[in-house]
Structures are given as structure tokens and as C-alpha cells.
Amino acid sequence: MAILGNIIKGVIHAKDALTPEKNPVEEQKKVLEELLSKAKDTSFGKFYNFEEILNSDDIQKSFSASVPYFDYKRINKQWWKKIHQGQENITWPGNPDYFALSSGTTGKKSKKIPVTNDMIDAIKKAGVDQVFALSNFDLPADFFEKEIMMLGSSTDLVEKDDHLEGEISGISASNIPFWFRSYYKPGEEIAKIDDWDKRVEKIAEKAADWDIGALSGIPAWIELMLQKVISHHNLKNIHEIWPNLQVYTSGGVAFGPYEKSFNALMGKPVTVIDTYLASEGFLAFQTRPETSAMQLVTDNGIYFEFVPFQPEYIQEDGSIVENAPSVTLAEVKANQDYILIISTVSGAWRYLIGDTIEFTDVEKAEIKITGRTKFFLNKVGSQLSVNKLDDAVKNLEDKFKIKIPEYTISAKRYEDNEFYHTWYLGTESHVENEKLATELDEFLKNANKNYKVARSKALKGVKVNVIPLSVFYEWSDNNKKKGGQVKMERVMNDEKFANWEEFVSLNTK
């Protein structure tokens, strides 16, 4: 009998029963007031008159009217660079103990995003809240006695000046609560290995010693780790070595494109729970099994705003125009794409995180990630967001009974001076390129009226190139770094796509 598991499960259920109903709108008002109050004496707070905003009749409206939008480039140039020069109290009191390195999907050069102790505490609290949300899932008591494999970046953080640097997954894992360490795998020693391939090799060697009940990490890298364990031990599926694996906590990217390839590694179904942990904070997590949508963390150090995702508000580099209107949580509507804007306890203010989201349940503040502002394909008027591209790829998987975990696309001008949407699909399956191109084209014509109009005008057609899945992983390794928060570019600009096609040519001969 799982005595400890039953105790933990009982505590979780009791906590859930005693927790009052959430009011996300009111929570957000309180969070904004707390953020402004704590930062009012910083350089940023004085420059933008936080004291005056706090004394206004409508703090939310006054805040949005007084403070401009910032993307990383702008806030780093105007404010965060002062932190690197040793100045204190710039956008948040004191100086951050950590900087999260994030190249995201833009290239080798890392952004350095402040991570304060207040943010570390907020991430921990959100993690605990997520554990308590497991009371809504039908999990047996013995699940709560099993170990959890968290596959992120190295926890061997780099010391620089008066702070430590690393990816947010490594920073988070290096700050896990003491009571969680006995559950945490691969453990501190292996987690510090910087070389991702060597770390996964060690995981494969030790896999039989662990009783893993849950996995956590970005789908692409979790899959590669599982494949390595299966290959190392000559298994048919991962449940032959981890029979009690019941939960996978996904994050960072949409799970849909990976669903088929992930399930192919399983011996039985597992519960997939989505989370939204970015370099800027723990933004949302799935709280109930009836939906795959995630609930925004509205009471814990992050204030959210939302800009309607419309072409006239988006600049070519993915940033937004100054006069783009924002709305609060009280004003959003369901089934509409929004550009996500956040202000945080790490001193990010009206910050463009780069993601687009859609509300599936406004009252519960539940969302799904629909794409990236930089991954909005509109070069010839097709207005395709990543969720539309994901849907088109899923349709290919269903129609041709294949798995396509990775893809990328660009609107490319060919020698005939015509534009074609040029796709690269990562799959080990064999289907004629022409058949795939025709199906993609027809699906998107039926699913998106702007695409259909573009196909009758500037967009000449669709071209498809099927390549080995390994090429995508090697591209990530070559341009950034394997594992951690690294994500594949779904949409590329002309320059990046030219580099990509050269890389593919050299690696598929």
C-alpha cells in the first residue's frame, strides 16, 4: 500500500478543498499595485512616475498610458545594460542574483534576462500550485511516491561578476526545494553536465536504477532522451524500463506536432499536462484534465496585458507599433489571438515576450499558445500563425499516417520571380513531396481565407522538401545548443532560410 502517496494525495485534496475560488481579474489588479509599489523608487519607477500611477483613479489604465511597450532589445539598451554596468535599483530593487540566457529561436547570441530572488520565489510557488492542481487529475496514490525526470539545461551555472548565468530551466532546477530533491532525477551530479549528449548518455546508463513516474521538458529533447534510453537498453518502449511512468509535463512549445512521435515511444497512455515556463517567469499551467488549455498564473508576480494580434500592429522584426491598443484580463474575448505583454517581479515592464495566445475560457483565464509574433507568415498576405501551420501538419500526419515532429517554412522568391511557400518537413516516413504539397495547399485554402486570397494573387504555390528529422536537431546544435529551452524556428526570414537551405544541402548528401 502506498502509505506516503496516500498521505501526499490527501494533503493535496485537502488543500484544494480549502482554497477559495479564484478571481483572476481582481488578482491581476492586486499584482499590478504590488509591482508598482515595490518598484516606485527604482530608476525606472521614478522615470515613469509609478507614484503618480498608484494615486490615479484607474491604475491599470494609467499604467498602460504612461509606460511604453518594451521588447528585449529596447529594454536592454535603455535600462538593463545599466545593471551589467554595476548600477543598482534600475528596474527592480537591488540587483538580480541570476540572468537567464535565452537565444530562443533567433540565433546564437543569448539574451540576458534578469531573474530576481522574487522571481525565483514566484516560480517555486507556481510549481507548488501546479502540484496541488494534480488533485483534479485521476492519479493513483502511488504516483506521488515516484521520481520525476526533469530534462532541461545544465544546472552548472556560470559565475560572472556578482551573479550567476544559465538557462531558466537550469536556474529553476538549481533552486528546487529541499523536500523535492529525493524525487528529482537525473540528480544534481548528472544535471550539472553541460554537454547535452554526455548528460543523456549518463541518463541512459542510470535509467534502470530509477522509478520514474513523471517527465518534464521540451518535447523534442524529451523524445531524444527517451530514444537514447530505449536504444541503450534494447527496449520496445520506455514503459519496459519505467513501468510507472504516468505523467508528462510538456512546456515551451505546442505539444500537438510531437504527439504521434511521442506516443510511439510509450507502451501505454500517459497523462500530458501543459505548462508555460519562459525565461521571464512561470506564466501558466494546465489545472484540469477536461481541457489542454493552461490557466494564467494571475496571483503571483506577473501582470498580463494583451494586444489584439492584427497585422497592422506587428512590425517586420516581430515587435509591435507604439500605438497598438492593449486590453486587460477583464476586457479579453475568447477565441481571438492576442500578443502577450507582461510586467514582472524581475523588472520587466510592458514586455513583449514574443508569444501569441488565445483564451479558451475567459472566466477561468485559461489560454493556449498559438504561436510567435516572429513566426507570423505574412510576406505575401497569407496571414498564417503557427497554430494554423501546426494544424496543417497534423492534417498531413492523419491523412498519410506519418509522424512529422519538426518543420520549418518560409515564403521564398524563386528564379521565375514568383513566391512559393517552401516547407521542410522532418520525418522518417516516405511520401512524395508533390502529394504533401498539394494536401498542405488545399488544407490551408479551406482553413484560412487570407491564404486562399494570397494563392490567387502573390503566392504562386507550395513546395515541400522531406528531410531526416536528425537534420533539425543538428541545426539546433550548430546554431544554438541542444536541450534546455531551445526551440526550432517554425517560420524563417530570407537570410535565415538561405542559411538553413545551405545547411540542409551540406547535411543531406
Describe the structure.
With about 500 residues, the chain is α/β, with parallel strands linked by helices. The chain has two domains: about 375 residues, Rossmann fold; about 130 residues. The protein is about 35% helix and about 20% strand. The strands form three sheets. The chain has an eleven-stranded mixed β-sheet. Strands 2-1-5-4 form a four-stranded mixed β-sheet. A hairpin with a 6-residue loop joins strand 13 and strand 14. The protein is globular and about 65 Å long.
Record keyword descriptors for this entry.
single chain; 509 residues; alpha/beta; Rossmann fold; four-stranded mixed beta sheet; 17 helices; 36% helix; disordered N terminus
| Total domain count | 2
Gyration radius (Cα, Å) is: 23 Å
**Percent of residues in β-strands:** 15-25%
Q: Would you identify the regions where 5 or more consecutive residues have pLDDT less than 50?
A: 1-9
- Number of beta-strand segments: 18
Number of helices: 17
Largest sheet: 11 strands, mixed
